[in-house]
Amino acid sequence: VTHVADGAVTDAFRSEVADWFAAHNPVGWRDAVRAMSTEEWLDFNRTWLRTLNTRGYGAPHVPREWGGGGYSLHQQVTILSEWARVDAPGTDLFEISLFHVPGTLLAAGTDEQRQRYVRQGIDGVIWCQGFSEPGAGSDLASLRTRAVADGDGWRVHGQKIWSSHADHARYCLLLARTNPDASRHHGITYFICDLDQPGVEVRPITQTTGLQGFCEIFFDGAHVGPDGVIGGVDDGWAVAQSTLETERGVLGLDVVERMGHHLHRTVQALASRDEEHRSGELTADEAALARLLARHHAVRALCGHAVDRLEQGDHSGGLASLMKVSFSELLQELADWETTRRGEAALVQRPPMHFCGYVTDEPALDWLHSWGWTIAGGANEIQRNIIGERLLGLPRQPRPR
Ligand SMILES: Cc1cc2nc3c(=O)[nH]c(=O)nc-3n(C[C@H](O)[C@H](O)[C@H](O)COP(=O)(O)OP(=O)(O)OC[C@H]3O[C@@H](n4cnc5c(N)ncnc54)[C@H](O)[C@@H]3O)c2cc1C
User: How much is the pLDDT for 54?
Assistant: First the structure.
């Protein structure tokens, strides 16, 4: 891995990254993926991740000693931008392994947990996240899955839902209640649970898109050893905050870059199509596109500002929420515009076989997917509460006891 020691984004760095993606992008992959069986798709994803890892691009944010690229935040944005420019495949299948696992274990794990799991996850072992439950989403602290002490370990009973890619995952980052007598935010423990054992049943959920990206996980006495606790027993709530912060902000920078390149490609397509018929007036399509471009500039600038502040060590709560609300709502608007302008043609689509990202140029599919980002990692209404309270200093909304 070539590396710029001070983390600066030089012209040389940018063109090196651009050249690499241009040379390694598996051109035509979207069509190829359509024809793949699930096994072939899993293999395709693993191979792509291994290729990315030869340059540290699979986990550019993770220090090199743990198998990542060790790039600065500004360099990560450059990598994501050049990645999006050639529309190369994403790494969604490994999202928890690449982001949440290192984010959580490097902050709160033991040395043994870091050694055992971080590099393995970056190499392609799939993890999922078992936070949400049927009665605990936005109000996560009301979760009811229990872990009961059993010898020197634990037995887990309960149900999780919306767990992305749990059907392919080996391990789960799991929140469970260990002290029912403690107040809601206390008495929760953060576990590493091996899903490959009796007492675990994973059931995929079919979404409106026809894909099965989420699962329910049923635990009926699954075992977690004493080395599976992250942070302290009953202290999982604080640890979970570092996972959630990862999920809200930096993950979306990829979508911001993909939207930008998609908008520019659309501008070029419209410009060449309309050249002969130009009257001097903006068409309704062009005016809408101009508004989207202006908004994209604003969202990208906002994210750039947040990245600057994060790079300077400012981790004030709320920055990630601001990024998430702004890019996810722009994504929804962009997908809505694309679907509307293509009319009935947008509805005629080949059924997807596997998830291929959020900006795929399949308008109806992108539109359906776009709602996911306004909900995942905490719905936007909740993000607005966080922005109000932590960034703007507004009074806290009443909390359930
Ligand atoms: C693409 C995607 C991937 C996901 N992946 C995972 C995963 O891997 N693991 C996992 O554990 N979970 C996952 N989730 C679940 C996600 O975390 C929850 O859907 C989310 O936290 C919202 O919870 P809920 O669906 O129960 O909605 P609810 O909490 O029931 O909310 C319903 C509505 O009420 C609003 N609302 C609730 N409380 C308030 C309030 N206090 N103030 C204002 N409005 C409020 C919400 O904003 C929302 O509009 C995923 C979700 C999506 C969409």
Answer: 97
